[in-house]
Amino acid sequence: MVDVVGVYGQPPSDLADVPRDAVQFSPLIPGSASLDRQPAASLNAMTLLAPPGTIERRYALAQALRALKPGAPLVALAPNDRGGTRLRKELEAFGLDVNETAKRHHRIAAAARPAKLAGIDDAIAAVIADGGPRFDDEIGLWTQPGVFSWDRLDPGTAMLIEHLPDLSGRGADFGCGIGVLARAVLANGSVGELTLIDIDRRAIECAQHNLDTPRARFLWIDLRDPHPELVNLDFVVMNAPFHDAGQEDKGLAQAFVRRAAESLRKGGVCIMVANRHLPYEAVLRPLFKAVKPVIETGGYKIYEARK
Ligand SMILES: C[S@@+](CC[C@H](N)C(=O)[O-])C[C@H]1O[C@@H](n2cnc3c(N)ncnc32)[C@H](O)[C@@H]1O
């Protein structure tokens, strides 16, 4: 079997050595391999910038252990205030012997996958079941811990659904998540095609379950990059993200707005809900012919912008 070394996320290079040819497994990097689908006992080593959500992090650690060969090294690191201080205990709960170091406000936990997983494979299976994709009876949708608003309806999304205008033709949902907003858009029979776009593979896969219709197309891409195939759209809807890797990033939603302006035909419309305290109007005005604030309430604001 070919020797495969894995990496999850982008660990700072001064904190962990990752070979240049390491295979990327983060679901937040389009084009990456899927750790869930990696065969058991197939990886020679794994370095993981552990995600901040507890269930999501334990899931990624469990999947990494499952995929590592017996005796293969695992290095997991995270900022102290984003799960780092919990890493050691979480790995010990899988029966691992952990060597922990601290550097630049991160914890770095190193361990080897035990030669035999017997005894810990139940713990791994339980954590994988807890963090994997599932149909959630309460929200009535496929979802997975770690994706945006995975177990509740986001208030911004709810507000946008309530104020959706009568859309028709070909459109896109920028940052579709598990497809809550897209379902409301596609409930309108005048919408012929909706392209659901997200940077998170897990979200796209849940959305594919949630929108089993030939009128839906799915793209796992980063909207900050240009995508020439996104042209001539009649409309774009979005609940724009304003966090990247857990940090507030106004530039992200602004990049979404610019991409929307590029993707719409003349006269096409962009409907977006945004956090009220963020300055979107200044970005919308020069790119669109008409910008109309639709409603502002409860910390959110909806804009309708026409090309
Ligand atoms: C605020 S959520 C909205 C999700 C969904 N539309 C809803 O209303 O429930 C924003 C979504 O944008 C996605 N996202 C963040 N950065 C992105 C990027 N650079 N390119 C594409 N999608 C991105 C996130 O993964 C997240 O699912």
Q: Explain this structure to me?
A:
The protein has 307 residues and is of the alpha/beta class. It has two domains: 5-132, Rossmann fold (3-Layer(aba) Sandwich), CATH 3.40.50; 135-306, Vaccinia Virus protein VP39 (Rossmann fold, 3-Layer(aba) Sandwich), CATH 3.40.50.150. The chain contains eight helices and 17 strands. The strands form four sheets. Strands 11-10-9-12-15-17-16 form a seven-stranded mixed β-sheet, with helices on both faces. A six-stranded mixed β-sheet has the order 2-1-3-4-6-5. The protein has a two-stranded antiparallel sheet with strand order 7-8. α4 packs parallel to α5. The longest helix is centred in the N-terminal third of the chain and has 14 residues, at 54-67. The protein is elongated and about 60 Å long. The model has no long low-confidence stretch (mean pLDDT 93). S-adenosylmethionine binds next to α5 and β10.
What's this entry about, in short?
The protein has 307 residues and is an alpha/beta fold.
